[in-house]
Amino acid sequence: MDFTFTEEQQAAVEAARAVFSGVAPDSVPSPALTPGAVAEDIDRRLWGELASSDLLGLTLSEEYGGAGLDPVALLLVLRESAKVLARVPLLESCAVAMAVERYGESGLAAELLPRAVRGELVLTAGANGRTGHDPAELAVTARPEGPGAAPSGSAPAGWVLDGVQSAVPWAQVADRIAVPAHTGEGRAVLVLVDPARQGVTLADQVSTSGERLAEVRLDGVRVEARELIDVPGAWEWLRDLLTTGTCALALGLGERVLAMTAEYTGKREQFGFPVATFQAVAVQAADRYIDLRAMEVTLWQAAWRISTGAGGPLPAAGDIAVAKIWASDGVRRIVQTAQHLHGGFGADTDYPLHRFHAWAKQIELSLGPAAAHEEALGDLLAAHPLA
């Protein structure tokens, strides 16, 4: 079997590396020294460069100015972005754009996607619900109003939203927020909400990495019918893509941290020898390398299921759960070992390792920690007994 990436995917990686080569992880104040958010806005210069390099539309069709590649290309770029702690909503904006193209009305796609490709429009998603523990779609209700609101078979003229989504990334700078909700019949729907709409309130929150999040409260927010995506599976598909993208971020961050550790231990000497030559150090680094390889293979398995729709003994959600279990546990072990092998130098706020540790913790818990996905995997195994 051929596990190599296509020429187009590899070209996307090279373009991403060129853009990210000018990004410094220390470009904003340290989250360890800042009581609030490290910055008010995303890295607008980087966002513009990503748009100029056609990296914001990699996975959208040419009709909207994109390159027409599959989700694997986006995950490869996300992997590179995490190596420099890129402060841009690349995952959220691209994932929501893909969901709009795949499931939304053509008019909504034509309105939003070309602007998203050009970097003029920032998209994000509320995927954590009210507390981060319950399904996100249960935190918001969507009820129809206007002609067709009664169960007569005709489509409603609009919808009214009520509820809360917490820890929404980049919400303060987003132009649209993809909000999962549930209807009176219990269906999960996806709504594109303008944060400037009447009834929308944003309350500042701060992530472990020091980036701005927001609690998005919806009080009687009215949206047009075309802004609500009622296609079965739309929210679940977006959630799966966001989760897999988080795994790609974990892999890229882990690779960068292990490389930093190898460089440091190769130069740091004790008793006249580099500490990397000591067996205790080498064994710990080797264990973390094994973590990286497990994170990588489970990521691409999940990505393959999402990209191709291929079947398997379990639904694709099973492969995604396995990938997130390895990503969450693996990235945590990698940064902990890196801190240990760096000694006191790893806690120095003039050295970027502490930033990677903070980002790793945020990634570990985003879209559910390992324990949550272990529970989900157990439920899938119970519902789909393996022969």
From TrEMBL:
Acyl-CoA dehydrogenase/oxidase N-terminal domain location: 6-120
Pfam assignment, any one: Acyl-CoA_dh_N
Domain Acyl-CoA dehydrogenase/oxidase C-terminal: 246-373
Cofactor(s) the protein needs: FAD
Entry keyword annotation includes Repeat: no
Keywords: FAD, Flavoprotein, Oxidoreductase
InterPro entries: Acyl-CoA_Oxase/DH_mid-dom_sf, AcylCo_DH-like_C, AcylCo_DH/oxidase_C, AcylCoA_DH/ox_N, AcylCoA_DH/ox_N_sf, AcylCoA_DH/oxidase_NM_dom_sf
Family according to the record: Belongs to the acyl-CoA dehydrogenase family.
PANTHER family associated with the record: ACYL-COA DEHYDROGENASE (PTHR43884), ACYL-COA DEHYDROGENASE FADE28 (PTHR43884:SF20)
Full protein name: Acyl-CoA/acyl-ACP dehydrogenase
Species this protein is from: Streptomyces cyaneofuscatus
Lineage: Bacteria, Bacillati, Actinomycetota, Actinomycetes, Kitasatosporales
